[in-house]
Amino acid sequence: MRTPRFKRIVLKLSGEALAGAAGYGLDPVMLEAFCSELKEVHDLGVEMTIVVGGGNIYRGLKGSLHSGIDRAAGDYMGMLATVINALALQTVLERQGVPTRVMSAIEISQLCEPYIRRRAIRHIEKKRVVIFAAGTGNPYFTTDTAAALRAMEIGADVICKATNVDGVYDSDPNKNPEAKRFSHLSYIEVLKRNLKVMDSTSISLCMDNNLPIIVFSLKRRGNIARVVLGEDVGTTVGQAKDGGA
């Protein structure tokens, strides 16, 4: 068995990744396939946590813009959507033999545990996959920021950001066939270029704490394992190679 490069990770997963071709809701086939990949990573001995979005069910900002729902209320609705996704992931992972806990930033004691940092770390040490739901528990903060925050709190080695493209490009590769993919970017480059890796709050938090982010495609099976094993996959965001910011 190959030795993983990273011992403890936060996997940032969009809700849309669980929706399949429909683009909304939960696709059982996608869930099963994705969880089987997570099991492979868990079997490598990696301590794994997941921050999942809720965009396949409800997106707070979009709802506030198009339906007249108050932004704060819309964000809380989005948090509830992440809990639905987290419970779905937990159900399938445990059916596949992976011990899993869901911890929510908003208290829903009948469904999942409240987020308590020391308890989360204990679950991780016991090799349970911990799914962090409900973002930070605060409106106006994205699940990207939640991923960065939880990564700092639990002492993760890296944030693995799973997307629909195989890294970060200088323009939209779906619209521009000449788009250039970066193999490495500094935090400052991401902020200056306004590249849509994660939101600026989460990038700044990672920069301040020197936490690397690896952006990769979820479409190629086995990519999560390739990332944790240290293969050259996707785009790495970190310190500038010359040692600067």
Describe this structure in words.
The protein has a single domain (8-238), classed as Carbamate kinase, CATH 3.40.1160. The longest helix is centred in the middle third of the chain and has 25 residues, at 71-95. It is built from eight helices and eleven strands. With 245 residues, the protein is an alpha/beta fold. The mean pLDDT is 92. Helix 2 runs antiparallel to helix 3 (71-95). The chain has helices at residues 28-43, 60-66, 71-95, 117-125, 143-154, 187-193, 200-208, 223-228; strands spanning 8-13, 47-52, 100-104, 113-114, 129-133, 158-163, 168-169, 181-182, 184-186, 213-217, 235-238.
As for the number of domains, it is: 1
Within the CATH hierarchy, at the fold level, what is the topology?
Carbamate kinase
Please estimate the helix content: 25-40%
Examine the secondary-structure arrangement and name the CATH architecture.
3-Layer(aba) Sandwich
Order of helices and strands: EHEHHEEHEHEEEEHHEHE
Topology:
Elements: E1 8-13, H1 28-43, E2 47-52, H2 60-66, H3 71-95, E3 100-104, E4 113-114, H4 117-125, E5 129-133, H5 143-154, E6 158-163, E7 168-169, E8 181-182, E9 184-186, H6 187-193, H7 200-208, E10 213-217, H8 223-228, E11 235-238
Parallel strand pairs: 1-2, 1-6, 2-5, 3-4, 3-5, 6-10, 9-11
Antiparallel strand pairs: 7-8, 10-11
